[in-house]
Amino acid sequence: MSDRNNRAIAVLTSGGDAPGMNPAVRAVVRTGIAYKLDVYAIYEGYQGLIEDRIVKMNWSSVSGIIGLGGTVIGTARSKEFMTREGELKAAENLIRRGIDNLIVIGGDGSLTGANIFSTTWAELTAELEAQGRITAEQRQAYPELRIIGMVGSIDNDMANSDMTIGADTALHRIVDAIDALRSTAFSHQRTFVVEVMGRNCGYLALMSAIATGASWVFIPEHPPEDTWREDLCTRLEDGKKAGRRDHIIILAEGARDKHGEPITSAMVKETIEGALHVECRVTILGHVQRGGSPSAYDRYMSTAYGYEAVQELLKEDPTHESKIIVSHDNRVVPVPLVETVKKTKAIAAAVADGKFAEAESMRGIGWSQISELVSLNARVRPDKAPDENSPCIAVMTAGWPAPGMNSALRTIIRTAMNSGFRVLGVEDGVVGLVSGKFRTFEWMEIDHWAGLGGTKLGTNRTLPEERDFYKIAVNLDRHNVKGLIILGGWTAFAIVNRLYNARPNFEHFNIPMLCIPATVNNNLPGAEITIGSDTALNTIVEALDKIKTSADSARRLFTVEVMGRYCGYLALLSGMASGAEYVYMHEMGVNVDMLQKHTRELVQHFRNGRRTALIIRNENANPTYDLNFISSLFEEEGDEFFDVRQTILGPMQQGGKPSPFDRTLGARLGFAATRQMIKQIREKDYTCGLVGQTGGEAQVFDYDSLIKTVSVKWQRPLFQWWERYYLITHTLAILPPGAVDLDDD
Ligand code: ADP
Fold it and tell me: What topology is assigned to 381-531+659-711 in CATH?
């Protein structure tokens, strides 16, 4: 095999479109160019390959597409590609251009097609030679077609993969629609059945049910009991009696009963209207779910996929196996294509054959636990109501508010109450803990909390001092508090630390204390993503979209400062998701050499015809080179080439409605933390810790081991998994030296 660095690659999108395909295409094209490969885009999927719609790409061919929905290179379904002649034409077109690396972004159908194409490549090229369509030399020069796939599918139905391209955006569309329906449902006391996409997979239905606090959800993997009609009506009646004014029922399009018969929205409507004599409206969300601008996650993750896909092609691969790039536990990894597609089909078959437990276990990611969460939150009263003598868990929020805190609180309160525990809310963080501002909750009063921003308990950044410990101990004793859950960022972490260290003098602090990481800064150990950071990222990315399009005819450099304290997560990930030219963050430092180099590059960039550029600065990147300094420097050096406009995004980053991910993360961590708390109280285990998510599942980390993994000075973990994205962001933003941008010729 010849040198892999001298190869040409082509990228195509195929099958159903998905938001996030464009960032993936952009990343493939620019990574390829950065590594000096010839990069081609094949327009209109496999049909375009057959029709030779193959276009050489340059750096600016993919400018400005990162925030666009759908796929700018078009997608199609091609019957012809499934015929021998279609395959022959496709192979011929590739060989004529010298392309023997193909990156396919599509669903399992498209990926299966790619793999078949690759495995029949030798036969196809032999036939092409025999027919005189290619020469013997051409056939010898291209003995193999390498395939790398990326899964573009809003359904999130691929095995071995945590999130497929487009699923997160689809959830945004669904949750926005249900939030809107909820307000009208509430006003009119109506019941809505909302049908969502997902084919054989209930992911979108289940996650949107958690995120919106739905009364019932039907998914293919978990069919209801045969008595579902009566059970559903009882749930709705009970809810109404308990004061629930609105009912949202979510139905996955592939929902079935235990006998494999489809459950349709019309059936659900008829059932409710027939039995309860109330009006029930059906909303089938349809194609809006796959439309619109990709979410922050779908932009940065697809960018990482595209970058890794090219890296994978650059490697020699003795296995000659086609691969798919997926995310697993927040890591972007290659997995074997054939085995993954086979497993995906096996899951679909298990669902179709009614082997639900098998399907659920093959899907992984604790699906059964998620279903349990949905049922818990749909209840209208606890299983066994706590009384005054029940043991008590106190819960509080500390530090700055983070979107998703209320979703976590709702789940904590209900999980504890449903297990017979009393729950007390401490208001205003440590201030309330010291002054004894405790409150109780009614089950139904927190019904709507899942989608609310901020924190319903109030919060501030006060830490407990020596003089406060006695009062806190008295309050904990007075209310017979057996465990304390604190939601928040570094403040929450520090509160647990102080109370824990004061244990030798205050025996009442000998209770389990658990921290749930909730901060937009994403700077806590034991949690790869904290509650609130996804919402902040989406808010920033939306603001950057607006800022970028605010440029008039002049040439503009936008400098934007984002939050994060000493942690560059928001700066880097928003930079990656919006195609920023440079990101300044504390972890990498800022120095004069860097600024000089960037000034030179930017001037060159604008000289080459660039109209706008974007720099993101983390608020504490460097105390000397602040935003004013950086903006003034670039303004001066930019001279006639560009003007500078600076923006500090400020507190808007902490506010607003939580994103679907923050709502579900809040619920999942709240659930895991409360179960852990109950277990520790029952076992008299007073270990303090943090319940976070590293990888797929929530985990409990004990305090003593966590504290060794952080920089106390900079208030962030010593190792941050996302720092590897720094290189990707920079590789994709600035035309590498020596690369020719054909548009500027
Ligand atoms: P998705 O990729 O979204 O699952 P499809 O299943 O419709 O969408 O596949 C898209 C295209 O991929 C098809 O129109 C066809 O050109 C190609 N394709 C799908 N399955 C195969 C196959 N078994 N063999 C060859 N090509 C296939």
Answer: Rossmann fold (3.40.50)
With 60 as the cut, is the pLDDT of residue 743 above it? no
Nearest CA to ligand 1 atom 16: 78
In sequence order, what are the beta bridge partners of 513? Answer: 484
Lining residues, ligand 1, CB within 6 Å: 14-16, 46, 77-78, 81-82, 106-110, 112-113, 116
Identify the H or E element spanning 484. strand 481-488
Tell me the two tokens of residue 592: 């004069």
CB 156 within 8 A of CB 201: yes
108 belongs to the catalytic site: no
* Amino acid identity, position 631: S
Which residue's CA lies nearest to atom 15 of ligand 1? 78
Give residue 4's pLDDT: 56
Report domain extents, the chain: 3-164+294-328, 167-290, 381-531+659-711, 533-656+725-733
List the end-to-end C-alpha distance of the chain, in Å, as a whole number: 34
CATH of 533-656+725-733, one of 3.40.50.300, 3.40.50.460, 3.40.50.720, 3.90.180.10: 3.40.50.460
pLDDT in the model for residue 745: 29
What is the tens place of the pLDDT at every residue in 222-244?
899 999 999 999 999 999 999 88
Distance 536 CA to ligand 1 centre (A): 37
CA-to-CA separations, 660 to 52, 173, 328, in angstroms, rounded: 41, 10, 19
Helix (H) or strand (E) holding 615: strand 612-618
Average of pLDDT values for 612-617? 96
Reported as a single tens digit per residue, the pLDDT across 419-438 is 999 999 999 999 999 999 99
CA 110 to centroid of ligand 1, rounded, Å = 4
For residue 114, the Cα-to-chain-centroid distance in whole angstroms is 27
CATH superfamily for domain 167-290:
Phosphofructokinase domain (3.40.50.460)
- Nearest alpha carbon to residue 572 among 711, 403, 385, 720: 720
Task: Classify residue 736 by its DSSP letter.
Answer: P
- Kindly list the strands in the beta sheet with 556-562, ordered across the sheet, starting from the edge strand earlier in the chain: 582-584, 612-618, 556-562, 643-648
pTM above 0.90, yes or no: yes
Percent of the residues in the chain that have a pLDDT greater than 70, as a whole number: 97
| Average confidence score pLDDT of the chain | 93
Answer yes or no: is pLDDT of 352 > 90.
no
Nearest residue (by CA) to ligand 1, atom 6, is 109
